[in-house]
Amino acid sequence: MMRLRGLRSGALGMACWGVVLAAGAQTALTPPTSTTAPAAKKPAAALPGVGSALEQRDIRAQLAPRRYTTLAAEIGAKVQRLPVVEGAAFRQGQLLVQFDCSLQQAQLNKAQAGVDATEKTWRANQRLAELNSVGKIELDTSHAEWNKARADLSANRSLLGKCQISAPYAGRIAEQKIREQQYAQAGQPLLDIIDDSVLELEFLVPSRWLSWLQQGTAFEVRIDETGKTYPAKVQRLAARVDPVSQSIKVNAAIHGKFPELIAGMSGQVLMAPPVQK
Prior knowledge:
By secondary structure, this protein is an alpha+beta fold. The protein contains 3 helices and 12 strands; from the N terminus they run H-E-E-E-E-H-H-E-E-E-E-E-E-E-E. Strand 9 and strand 10 form a beta hairpin.
């Protein structure tokens, strides 16, 4: 009887220890509940004059000339002279290319002689017609021959005029594609010229800036090559917005004269939307 009670007491004790151990394990697995609420995360401080992340991106722009073109040969001839060297400036109307056009000059002289001869024939037939010594058909034919000779003269004079290429506007020689004494084919590129009297900037901005950006808006641009900042003004905005990037193209111009600036330089556009109150 005493042995049975001992067994019961032992079993009861082990059951109590099991309950205690289970409670301890549950306490260890359950994280403690804090009575203090976590501190709210502070928003990042906004940069002055800058909106969303789209406005904070680095806007890049490149200097480009107002006008630029490639001058090509209109006739096949040998290049006799290139008076303006590569990189040099020129004024409007200045000679840039001179071809050797001795053959074209000879053809012009021949055409002039043809005009003189046919004119004399027509004048003579006019006097003979007054004396009824020549028929009307012969008179009209001599007049037509004179007109044909004059047309040939005009064509040869126009061809000779293509032996020189003059500057369409003031600017600089960007690249010389041919050398003196080389033969140029008709249509062959000869010179790349630029008008750098005004340097323009072309860049993309977020389309949401259209609420405040307009023609005449002033800003600054920092040029990498010089390390300096220059004033600029918006000249025009593109006619449409790119729906994919939600951006719009802007054309601006450097405001003022800065001899150190040349086409092809690039830099950072220092422009940001106004601070909203």
